[in-house]
Write a structure and sequence with these properties.
The protein is mostly helical. It is built from six helices and no strands.
Length: about 130
């Protein structure tokens, strides 16, 4: 399976390559998003080695509740800053603070979207 993935890049990867070949390079924020997405992939791979697919072991409802818990935790932390998330992050220097919850939520959202996409294919990338 991995060899097939190396041989034929996905449509999204092709679009990314085209984007970076354009004369008008992506903005600074989009380049940062790209960096974060790559880092998320590395971190998710690391986590999967330890936890497997425990994030979805209770099905779609369990996955949703996991997302809701992350959001609830994030919301609780920014309330005292009148929902100014940027100010809240600046004030919270803890490694396990607000930014960590944002990273966790983003990675779980990636997993949910990836699982949804995989369920629409036969495993080879072709639609069911």
């Amino acid at each position: 399976m991995k060899d097939k993935m190396k041989e034929k890049p996905s449509k999204v990867l092709q679009q990314l390559e085209e984007l970076y070949e354009m004369e008008d390079q992506p903005s600074k924020i989009i380049r940062q998003v790209d960096t974060l997405a790559s880092l998320d992939t590395l971190k998710l791979n690391e986590a999967e080695k330890s936890y497997g697919d425990s994030w979805k072991q209770r099905g779609g409802v369990g996955a949703f509740m996991m997302l809701a818990r992350k959001w609830d935790r994030l919301e609780k932390q920014v309330t005292e800053y009148h929902y100014d998330i940027f100010h809240a992050i600046e004030q919270d220097a803890r490694e396990e603070g607000i930014i960590d919850d944002i990273r966790d939520l983003r990675r779980y959202l990636f997993l949910v979207e990836a699982e949804t996409a995989l369920r629409k294919t036969d495993g080879s990338g072709k639609p069911k």
